[in-house]
Amino acid sequence: MISIKEIQLSSQYGVDFIYGKIILNDTSEDIAAYKIDLYKSNNSTDNFSLLKTDITKMTFLDYGVNLKNLSTHYFYKAEITLRQTGEAHFSEVFSLENMEPDKEAYYLIELYKIHLETAINNRKMILLSRKHEGQHCTVCYDDVRKKSQLADCNFCFGTNYTGGYYEPQIIQTVFLNAPGQMQDFSMSGVGEKKAPISLWTINYPLIQNDDILIDINNNRYIVNSWQPSYKNFYLIRQTVQATMAPKTSIIYNIPVGLDALRM
């Protein structure tokens, strides 16, 4: 049976979340034969609650933390279950060593927040964070081939994971360029789409490649470049480049309400 060597925990990517990596002991066993669930508590001995289930990528982000409060501690452990028999065991408990707050980093982050709230050319957008782990799509995912069997699945939207994306989040952005126009030739004729956009936003929520950004006109952009800005290992700002998806893309089938962008 596989076992966990360590759960590495770090807040090096910012001040609003914990980044974790599950390290397994060397094994020749098929990891897919096991289900790995992650639990979290503010106590090292009890009151653990399920944080993530069926982890496959062995990494995770926990946004449900307040790292500014040094009196609050976070503990993690994992449960490994052999799928065939249901045999299970827990790992040891691992904790994050609290980092001293960096007042300069906090100050810069607050300045960026104020700028976003007062800048003339700021724009609200909806962020859809793509799923990279969790429950595989029950409609299109082939467990044998380890990939989707449908080109356009309305249950995972091409991600292989049920739902495809996490809950929508509203973010404030500042555009670094004005979206232009360029011709998009396709089999059905000539269409028109917007050129790549560049923008920046604050350190939270974290944006990653392949996430989706949606503007008030329901244009949907796929993130293809992410540039972080750090201060003493703290993420203080994110600069992003994204390209608008063709209107025929399956991602336009993801239901999203735009009313929040009009407020």
Write the layout of secondary structure elements.
Layout: E1 4-10, E2 18-24, E3 34-41, E4 49-52, E5 59-62, E6 75-82, E7 88-90, E8 94-95, H1 103-118, E9 122-128, E10 141-142, E11 147-148, E12 169-175, E13 181-186, E14 189-194, E15 197-202, E16 212-214, E17 220-231, E18 234-244
Antiparallel strand pairs: 1-2, 2-5, 3-4, 3-6, 6-7, 6-8, 9-12, 9-16, 10-11, 12-15, 13-14, 15-18, 16-17, 17-18
Based on CA atoms alone, the radius of gyration comes out at 21 Å
DSSP strand tally? 18
Please write the string of helix (H) and strand (E) elements.
Answer: EEEEEEEEHEEEEEEEEEE
**Distance, first to last CA:** 53 Å
Outline the biggest β-sheet. Answer: 6 strands, antiparallel, barrel
Backbone shape: flat
Fill in the keyword field for this structure.
six-stranded antiparallel beta barrel, single chain, 18 strands, flat, 263 residues, 40% strand, mainly beta
How would you sum up this structure in a few lines?
By secondary structure, the protein is mainly β. The protein is built from one helix and 18 strands.
Commentary on this structure:
There is one protein chain. The chain is built from one helix and 18 strands. The protein has one helix at residues 103-118; strands at residues 4-10, 18-24, 34-41, 49-52, 59-62, 75-82, 88-90, 94-95, 122-128, 141-142, 147-148, 169-175, 181-186, 189-194, 197-202, 212-214, 220-231, 234-244. The strands form five sheets. The protein has a six-stranded antiparallel beta barrel. Strands 3, 4, 6, 7 and 8 form a five-stranded antiparallel beta sheet that branches. A three-stranded antiparallel beta sheet has the order 1-2-5, with no helix packed on it. The longest helix is centred in the middle third of the chain and has 16 residues, at 103-118. The radius of gyration is 21 Å and the shape is flat. The model is unreliable at 185-189 (pLDDT under 50).
